[in-house]
Amino acid sequence: MTAEAKLELSRVVERSTAVRKAEVAAFVRFAGGLRVVGGRVVVSAAADHLSIAQRLQRDLHDLYGCAAQVQQSTHPGPRRRGQTYVHVVRDAEGLARQIGLIDPCGRPIFGLLSDLVQDCSDDAEGLWRGAFLAGGSLNCRGPGAGLDINCPGPEVGSVLIDAAGRLGVSARPRVVRGMDRVRVRDGQEVKALLCRMGAPQAGSAWAERHLRPAPPPMARRNFETANARRCSAAAAVMVSRVHDALVVLGETASGNLAEAGRLRLQYPSASLAELGQMATPPMSKDAVAGRIRRLLALAEGS
């Protein structure tokens, strides 16, 4: 589900320069940052798919005039977040200042640019799209169902929560195994947020899967099947014993006992409570069970 949503978002055509800048700044903040390689500062970001990396490469060129390099890893390690990387080497410090990784004095910024936290829902859409493409995931089942964003720090998570509020969505901060996250749990809000980001098909598919009843675990299904077989076998044995008892007793069987036995033969799969409702007059399931036991006991003593 997550992969489908990200691929749909990677195909969104955004016309607004401000929204594109918000998406780029959020993506780089959530998926990478500054690194020093061979004594040179590099802006780097990891992407889950080549199409997402190519989208970032295109936006960096169009918006900031940067010649970004896309590199695909042939041997991804278990801790790497993606298999495709986008690197900016030339004038990386200048780019870092423009997208809010460092301030004019070269000091690191732990939040996001103030331009991205203004009261503008369009910028909020771009910010959330970039954050989801970088560190988002969708879960349809269980207590963890919802939309999650892995955040590089609580400061960025607070900005994301404020942006969600501008979109009419309630997001909450979480810490899972030491990792800061932002979660949207409400099913309708997850669908609405995906639509606002530009993934209406993924939103509809997620809502359908989320609302569909989950199948029981395999162990539970196996237990229920085995239990049904045991009940069916026990019912067959009881019907056979009641039949033999009525044959043995014949006309000597008491009317009440014979009636309970005949009901058991006529409705072999019915419960004792259902047999009691069919009796004339109706009686409790305990009364039916007691009469059948006495019927069998009489036949055994004959």
What does this structure look like?
This protein has helices spanning about 1-10, 15-30, 50-65, 90-100, 120-135, 155-165, 185-195, 200-210, 220-250, 255-265, 270-280, 285-300, and strands at about 30-35, 40-45, 70, 85-90, 135-140, 145-150, 170-175, 180-185. It is an alpha+beta fold. It folds into 2 domains: about 1-210, Roll (Endonuclease I-creI), CATH 3.10.28.10; about 220-300, no CATH class. The strands form 2 sheets. A 4-stranded antiparallel sheet has the order 1-2-4-3. A 4-stranded antiparallel sheet has the order 5-6-8-7.
Number of helices in the DSSP assignment: 12
How many domains?
A: 2
Spans of at least 5 consecutive residues whose pLDDT stays below 50 are 76-82
Q: Report the order of strands and helices.
A: HHEEHEEHHEEHEEHHHHHH
CATH domain fold name of the largest domain: Endonuclease I-creI
CATH class of the largest domain: Alpha Beta
Oligomer: single chain
Average pLDDT for all residues: 83
Tell me the major beta sheet: 4 strands, antiparallel
Strand content: 5-15%
Identify the CATH architecture of the largest domain: Roll
| Shape type | rod-shaped
Please tell me how large the radius of gyration is: 34 Å
Q: Would you count the extended β strands for me? A: 8
Structural class: alpha+beta
CATH superfamily of the largest domain: Homing endonucleases
> How are the strands of the biggest sheet laid out side by side?
1-2-4-3
Distance between the termini: 69 Å
What is the percent of helical residues?
A: 40-55%
